Amino acid sequence: MRAFAVLFFCVLVFVTGAKLRLPTALNIPTSDILYNRQYSLAIKSNLFSYSQTDDPANMKIWYMPSIEASAGIKNRVEFGAGYAGGPTLNFKALLLDEGKIEYLPSFAIGAKDIMTSAEAHMFGLEQADTLKAMANCAFIAMGKSFEQFGTRLHLGTMTNFGFDTERFSIFAGAEVYLGGGFYVTYEGFQRFGSFHQFFTVSWIYDKKFLVSAGISELRQAFLGDGKFGLFSDKFAQSNGYGVPGIRFSLVYCGSPSGADASGIRGLEDEVNDLKKSIDAIRKKSADNDIKVDNIEKQLGGLEEDFIALTSRGSSDRQKDYKVVISEQLKSIGDLVETGQGAYDAEEVSSHTKKIVEYKEFALPSLSAIIRNPKANPVMVSLAIQMVGEIGNKKSRQMLLRLLDYKESALKIDALIALGKLRDKAVVKDIEALLQDTDEAVVLTAQEVIYKLTGVKRAAGTKSEQKITTDSIPELDQEIPGNEDTEAPLEADTAKTNIPEAKPAKKPAPSPGPAKK
């Protein structure tokens, strides 16, 4: 018998496989509680044939409905009262809510059929001693929803203190949502040594009305040989236990004004809540995907830098990088010399970009130009600008070392390049130039500090004596991590192909704030 019940439940789950709701199990205790201040009104009946004399020729129809009213308190307790051949009371309390603790079922305890047994009334029992023994039933009920299968399961045990035998009886049930407001429910409980089963189909309308109809004593309803057991004279007995019948229920659920008006909140509502949670998780996942994309772009930039260090991405990638850099510097030098200060900035920019593409490999050649006292001041200014555009740790260290040079033009160009790096870590080094003797240097330092921090700094006192370029070691040789790179290009113009500036009494200042 129990094996048949398990098989029927498995078929029910895997055939329907949809979503589900709470609660359509009306014949067994459940752990489902009405919400705070919600109430329900129910009428239940079981229609079957019986014989008071156990005579098939004297069959009658039992139809004695019971009524019940219930109310929820604080989402934790439910009280009910009704009439089933006599006054009957019931109550239950929710001890554990499955929605609060993941993976655990809901857990409730309670009592039903206090004073009068509604179960005995439903099955037409009339013996006084049996009615008295079946009253006052205590139960423990568990329930768990499985949204992925569209199913809710019920399980528990109950006891009637008036029974000398069968002190504990098990009960179980399953609910499945079919869609369109329709549900199927299977229930069963143990009584008098047998397992009594119910199969019902329910429909919820407007979240207020629950209508259900089905078959009681499901196994006995199918007699075999193509015969149906309903109202058969084969079951000529004085009560409905073991007699197939038609089960009918009508439930109305409501709430007073100002209370929760969610009505009969079913498992389809839980599914909707789950969908909302999934949507929120998807949105969060999408935000994380955007962050991941940004990180991937940054990693892509690092990868491009790495590729630039190992294999050039331009048409010149097969050439020796020193040759390419030298050719680009020569082209810049020719433009500067030919234009005599009025060179084509756009064309120069196209060459500087190709040099900057080589990152650290370009630093030794640029350092050679900066250290060459005979180099064209415009070329020196452009070299410092390219060091800043390379923008890595080594180029920043080169720019910081230029702040210790005596020549104001070098310091001003280095300050401008540092400002474009947007790195606040260099502010402390720049602050030292607030004490410089050259007003143009001080003004440039103030402007860069303001650009990086938003704070205007006042000029300081005279700084310590600065050293000249002749006493500064080669910049590229002092850059940590540069020891393994190839030797820098020579500083003389014959190898770098950079034209020297023509001698003049005063070298033209590099671009930067004008002296006042």
Report the structural category: alpha+beta
Give the count of structural domains: 3
Q: What string gives the helices and strands in order?
A: HEEEEEEHHEEEEEEEEEHHHHHHHHHH
| Overall body shape | rod-shaped
CATH class of the largest domain: Mainly Beta
Oligomer status: single chain
C-alpha Rg (nearest Å) = 45 Å
Average per-residue pLDDT, rounded, comes to 76
Architecture of the largest domain, CATH level 2? Beta Barrel
Query: How many angstroms separate the termini?
Result: 105 Å
The CATH topology label of the largest domain is Porin
Proportion in helices: 25-40%
Model regions low in confidence, pLDDT < 50 over at least 5 residues: 1-22, 311-318, 461-516
CATH superfamily label of the largest domain:
monomeric porin ompg
Number of helices: 13
- What percentage of amino acids are in beta strands? 15-25%
Largest sheet, strands/sense/barrel: 12 strands, antiparallel, barrel
Strand order of the largest sheet: 1-3-4-5-6-7-8-9-10-11-12-15
